[in-house]
């Protein structure tokens, strides 16, 4: 009986922790920092795709990532500066590991497959994060930026999904 109470108690503590995490307010600064680093990663990987990709589709998609994410990061840096948020000047550790992984790959079809698969997954995560920011960010400029950027992220996602199925 005591074991059952202990298990129920642990379960309630876990549920309480989940509720607290769900009620945690949106962190504008954390979103900005992660989005800037993620944008820098998209640019870096896009440059690699232009050089190391085998298919024209991957090369063109890489070039689009460089252009679109450079533009988005410049806007995001303006918002960060106005909000007095210090942003990273280099990739966050998680993003650096991804960049290193792709840098170590050989050019060609294998690069294309890994790049496309990574971009599908990455853009799914980006869309979810930007949707949340567009609704929950406290900074109105950040909220507007996230909402305005969403259609571009969704376009990227659709483009790269088509590459995935070729």
UniProtKB/TrEMBL annotation:
**PANTHER family this protein is in?**
BLR2558 PROTEIN (PTHR38593:SF1)
Which InterPro entries does the UniProt entry name for this protein? DUF4142, Ferritin-like
Source organism, top-level taxon: Bacteria
Q: Does the keyword Disulfide bond apply?
A: no
Pfam families in the record, alphabetically? DUF4142 (PF13628)
Q: Does the keyword Signal apply?
A: yes
User: What is this protein's name?
Assistant: DUF4142 domain-containing protein
- The UniProt record lists the DUF4142 domain at 27-163
Q: Where is the signal peptide?
A: 1-21
Task: Report keywords, A-Z.
Answer: Signal
């Amino acid at each position: 009986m005591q074991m059952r109470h202990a298990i129920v108690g642990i379960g309630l503590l876990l549920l309480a922790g989940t509720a607290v995490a769900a009620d945690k307010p949106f962190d504008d600064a954390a979103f900005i920092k992660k989005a800037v680093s993620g944008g820098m990663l998209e640019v870096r990987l896009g440059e690699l795709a232009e050089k190391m990709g085998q298919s024209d589709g991957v090369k063109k998609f890489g070039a689009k990532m460089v252009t679109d994410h450079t533009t988005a990061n410049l806007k995001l840096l303006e918002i960060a500066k106005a909000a007095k948020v210090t942003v990273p000047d280099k990739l966050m550790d998680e993003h650096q590991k991804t960049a290193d992984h792709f840098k170590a790959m050989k050019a060609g079809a294998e690069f294309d497959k890994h790049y496309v698969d990574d971009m599908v997954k990455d853009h799914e995560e980006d869309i979810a994060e930007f949707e949340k920011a567009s609704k929950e960010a406290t900074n109105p400029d950040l909220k507007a930026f996230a909402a305005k950027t969403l259609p571009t992220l969704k376009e990227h996602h659709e483009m790269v999904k088509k590459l995935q199925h070729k």
